[in-house]
Structure prediction request, 126 residues.
Amino acid sequence: QVQLVESGGGLVQAGGSLRLSCATSGRTFSQGTMAWFRQAPGKEREFVATISWSGGTTYYADSVKGRFTVSRDNAKNTVYLQMNSLKPEDTAVYYCAAARACSPYGCAEAKTYNYWGQGTQVTVSS
Prediction:
């Protein structure tokens, strides 16, 4: 079993930055693919970013590419999401998720991920 706990959310003005953290425990963290998703009120949960077990491969949604950076520190069992140039449309609950592998659905699909955190609220004011 894997436990995920997000932190770092909050209220920020447009153009500002936040760094989310996802602390993991349980099964071996370093062997899994990690991802961030978000869900705004009244909308479907959407993919934000993913990072391979080594940290060598990352992939981003077009809406955040160039503004967000995903990283991980396997020694600390933690994955991060650095969010810069935030926009009001980035307002959502952000979730981290873990999976052993991305097949067969792919790393950007929510159904790939077996474990989820409880989420952290990010609110960007205009």
Q: What stands out?
A: The radius of gyration is 13 Å. The chain has a mean pLDDT of 93. The longest strand covers residues 18-26.
